Amino acid sequence: MKQVAVRNIRLCTKDCLCLYVCPTGATDTENSIIDTTKCTGCKSCADACPNGAISMVPLSYPAQQKKQDDVIAILNAVSYRKMQAETIANQIACQAGNQTVQPLMQAIARSSRLIAEDLIREAGYMLPQSANAQDFLQGLLTNPPDDFPTEIVTELLTRIPCNETKEGIIQ
Amino acid sequence: MKYICVICGFVYDEAKEPVLFSALPDTWICPVCGARKNNFHAEEDKKKPQEAHTIYETDLQPLSTAQLSALCSNLARGCEKQYKFRESELYTQLSEYFLRHTPQEPEASLDRITALLKEDLNEGYKTIHRIASDVGDRGALRVCVWGEKVTRILHDLMERYATEGEQFLADTNIWVCSICGFVYVGNTAPMLCPVCKVPDWKFEKIEGGIGL
Ligand code: SF4
Ligand code: SF4
Ligand SMILES: [Zn+2]
Ligand SMILES: [Zn+2]
Description:
The complex is a heterodimer of chains A (about 170) and B (about 210). Chain A is extended. Chain A folds into 3 domains: about 5-60, Alpha-Beta Plaits, CATH 3.30.70.20; about 70-120; about 125-170, no CATH class. Helix content of chain A is about 45%, strand content about 5%. Chain A is mainly α and about 170 residues long. Helix content of chain B is about 40%, strand content about 10%. By secondary structure, chain B is of the alpha+beta class. In chain B, a hairpin with a 5-residue loop joins β1 (about 1-5) and β2 (about 10-15). Chains A and B meet through α3, α4, α5 and α6 of A and α1, α2, α3, α4 and β4 of B.
């Protein structure tokens, strides 16, 4: 599977070992972002970095696991309630002003959101490249409300190609 | 007799402790995760068999606006993990759009939150567990194990707030694990998340203040 190097700028201390080992000069850039058009995926920089600041990232991902309808249905039922809890906690936090219940409500809202995201991820939205995610975006473009930011959706669709077809995975 | 915390697995061994478990006050909490006594079970009672009485409706319902917001923030995280920062930002914007358009809940009360949590504990997670075990979906089982424990601590905190009032939150901090959502009340975050075991720096401190 083809890979490219990505540098985590927060971990990078600019020791610059990666500059010496890169055979193509891909690591030597003015904005610290490794040039993916030059990177051949040889992994020398990732091995040389003393800070673990470079990861090798695959250019394509395998298709996500298929989920059964009954699994999806029950995961969705629970994430529905988690998001109800988030909405209510946010409402109470807004009304609460500075009372002590406010941080508790913010914690409940934050936690409920994280659980809901995790449930939805397991209900068929693991990979941004999946057919599910792409179908979701396409669906948003049919009869959108007036204030809907369609340009965001179109940009996402052009930036993230789908990795599934009816026949299987596009490599 | 040994008593085990269902959330973090801490063992209260009466042979080593000065006080019998039953003699601990109701305000006693698990030293590791902060859960109250009723989240412990005696080591002897073998796991109660899961009662699976709910026949689950498998028709796929359309997602609510709030769920769409979570769908998008989930994909934003997915993009971030792949170092796709622009895409992550775009999904975050979509998520915020859906959040702004989420209708208010008619009954916004603390009791309603507690009731929702209770429904998940009594019914939702049991059903996920049963269906996911039947079909061997380990991913769904993982989300079930984490989610149920975190839901239990949230339910516990809501009940503590209802019985002990505001003082249990005074002069302390609230921390949320950014991976599993576990909530911890204390001056500093736990060294390891009691549920998903990530280190303390993965915890976010709730800062309070208006302007959500
Ligand atoms: S070797 Fe690692 S720390 Fe040093 S400049 Fe390269 S990425 Fe940064
Ligand atoms: S993987 Fe190889 S080619 Fe790519 S940036 Fe690192 S050293 Fe250079
Ligand atoms: Zn515990
Ligand atoms: Zn955690």
